[in-house]
Each structure stands twice: as structure tokens, then as C-alpha cells.
Amino acid sequence: MAIGIVIVSHVAEIAAGLKRLVKEVAADVPITTAGGTDDGGVGTSFEKIMKAFEENPAETILAFYDLGSAKMNLEMAMEMTEKEVKLYDTAMIESCYTAAALAQAGVELDAIDQQLKPLKVK
What we know:
Layout: E1 3-9, H1 12-23, E2 31-35, H2 46-55, E3 60-65, H3 68-78, E4 84-87, H4 92-104, H5 109-116
Parallel strand pairs: 1-2, 1-3, 3-4
């Protein structure tokens, strides 16, 4: 089962920067991003999230986000995709990095979930 990652941030540069960081430990894991609004502003875009899901070749997507409204758009997009999407309410940078490194090493999804539990946002 191939695992991919989608990063959603209110700022395009944050999403791109996190992808750049994560690729250092997970060169083979497909990572797509949805950063900022459709007009380049600060915020999130349902359309950009759907595009990130579609462009990611993995059938199972691990989704990470920065702030609450990103979660709302992610949840709407999850209802519209055929892919299995796991949404993580965790510290975005740390959990995305950890998940990607584990996916690169071929770790199963259940074990990735266990590793991310301590990073859950309270």
C-alpha cells in the first residue's frame, strides 16, 4: 500500500517549505501541497486541497494542516475523493516529518498512527 502526504497551510510558502524539509527524509514518498487561497492570499482553498488529493498518486493519503479552517476544508474534500484520507490533528511539522520518514522506511499505517499519537494537539 503506497502512502502519500498532503500538506495544507494558510500560507503557500509554509506548505512548500514543509514539503522541502520532509523530502530530505522521504525522497520517495509522494507529497502534494495546498497552500493559501485561490488568489494567493492567506487562507485555505477547497479546490487546492482537491487538486492536491488528485495529483498525489498514492491511494492512501496522510493529511496534515496548520489551523482550524484548513481542517474544515480538508474534511469537505475528504467527502469528495475516492482516496482513503487520514486526517491528523497533530503538530503539523513534527507529525508530517515523522510520518514521511516512517512511510519512506515502509512502516505500516497502523504503526505510523501509533507514532503520531503523542503529537496530538490537545
